[in-house]
Amino acid sequence: MAQISNHMATAELQALDADHHMHPFSTQAGFKTKGARVITRASGTRLWDSEGNEILDAMAGLWCVNIGYGRDELAEVAYRQMKELPYYNTFFQTTHVPVIALSARLAELAPGDLNHVFYAGSGSEANDTNIRMVRFYWAQKGKPDKNIIISRKNGYHGSTLGAMSLGGMSGMHAQGGVVQNVHHIDQPNWWAEGGDMTPEEFGLERAQQLEKAILELGEDRVAAFIAEPIQGAGGVIVPPETYWPEIKRICDKYEILLIADEVICGFGRTGQWFGSQTVGIQPHIMTIAKGLSSGYAPIGGSIVCDEVAEVVGSGEFNHGYTYAGHPVSAAVALENLRILDEEKIIETAREQIAPYLKQQFEALVDHPMVGEAKIVGHMGSIALTPNKETRAKFAAEAGTVGYICRERCFANNLIMRHVGDRMIISPPLVFTRDDVDLLISRARKSLDEAYAKVK
Ligand code: PLP
């Protein structure tokens, strides 16, 4: 077989891809008629494809490339670590310097007494750890029946069987079943589900569903509540301001653990190091991944508070992954945290770019097809609607208009994603004002083109 490289013709690469590579969250057969876009390189906030197009990445890959593409420091750290100690595990009373250094740094950064890290290779694996860890925690405390985890419809916690069961994506549940003892309450999505209530009333009502669920299931059965501070993959749903304070009240009142899934919100995306700080909560466990290494190396984990770590640590927790705390990923993550911190990337993003991004992005609401535009820090969404007053959905099958809009963005060299009829962004934190201007002009053009097709 000829050497496969960036220099091959796009059609040839696409044909091989369609024949041999099974894509996540895709209809595989479709690649036979329309080949996948082949991304060949990236720098800063831009990607290039095999046709030479320069593309603005307003999704930071999959919400993860927080420091932007092409940072040599991370490549150099990975190279050095691979030469020195490419792999060793932390099972059986062993450890290594990269994992020690990263854990100590995460303990410094994480709020309150979140001082202990259990590693995984991804966010999904970390959430699987969380399911097992909170159940083990309660079993250690003599309450093995306190094993139900409450989560939310349209939340996303990953794709492994456990993480997918925590998530509330019905299309995923329908394929292959779910694990037991996970209970879903409704999401705080005022635009889609708020009816006649004000956002404030609705936020309270949705939070109080947690209390109702705890009372119905029994406080002695509920182990934990898990949620993303701001739902990401569900469509960047910014909850009404009343939501999190009420959830906090309920969590404080009942003896259940609070798990904040920070896989997207963590490491600066919402303007603080962690989304929990932005929404004002202090969880017992935080799930981390993505921005931890800015996506340069696969790594995830659970940051655990003192009390939970002590209880879990008092017995043998029979759980662990071969690549947990992988030395190369840990070294890359540590270097990424150094750059985020020393270059003040989070502060700069929050103070110098986010206000401008918010002003420009939320102004998209003047487009005839945009009903709601919301952004917190560097994650935002717009809701597409045929009627802003009634917040109606398009008559076409759910997501059709969003899909058309995403295709137009793609054609206009802008990566935005759609979730149903919401269009979402999650740009690298190194987005400049010029990037914002380009994003908005390409988004407006794409919206106009999509509108011309559907109106
Ligand atoms: N949790 C949240 C909030 C996510 O958004 C994701 C991925 O998008 C995950 C967990 C799963 O992470 P991974 O894809 O690294 O397994």
Automatic annotation (TrEMBL):
GO molecular function: pyridoxal phosphate binding; transaminase activity
Family annotation (InterPro entries): Aminotrans_3, Aminotrans_3_PPA_site, PyrdxlP-dep_Trfase, PyrdxlP-dep_Trfase_major, PyrdxlP-dep_Trfase_small
Cited SUPFAM superfamilies: PLP-dependent transferases
Keywords: Aminotransferase, Pyridoxal phosphate, Transferase
Cofactor: pyridoxal 5'-phosphate
Cross-referenced PROSITE patterns: AA_TRANSFER_CLASS_3
Cited CDD domains: OAT_like (cd00610)
Any matching Pfam family: Aminotran_3
NCBIfam families: PRK07480.1 (NF005682)
Family: Belongs to the class-III pyridoxal-phosphate-dependent aminotransferase family.
Protein's name in the database: Putrescine aminotransferase
Organism of provenance: Donghicola tyrosinivorans
